[in-house]
Target: MarR family transcriptional regulator
Amino acid sequence: MMTGVNTDTENISELLKTYWSIQRISAGYADQNAASLGLTIQQLAMINVIYGTPGISVAELTKRLIITGSSAAANIDGLISLGLVVKLNKTIPNDSMDLTLKLSKKGEDLSKRSTANAFMYKAMMKVFEN
Model:
């Protein structure tokens, strides 16, 4: 009986090693993609979430990306300064988490380019074609 358990454990161990190797490689490509666009990986993630959800609140953005409000605020300020994100609120809300966002035309173009550049995305789509 122990032989079967050891074999299962070894197989699971190998599977996990492969998974983490793929994760590291994938993260490296994501970092390269973001850097090629002049952004951090977190900024690029924000751009792509906002692209898919125009009018998203800062609160919802932090939930989707699993980041803190202060991290979101710093990145959003940077993206606004770069002319990639615009605030939709006519007045500034009492709680900055209620601020709603969308991409500028420049931000939309950058999001589209990020998807076009995404090597891992293209590779995964090739796998699913067959």
In short: The helical segments are 2-36, 41-52, 58-65, 69-81, 105-117, 119-129.
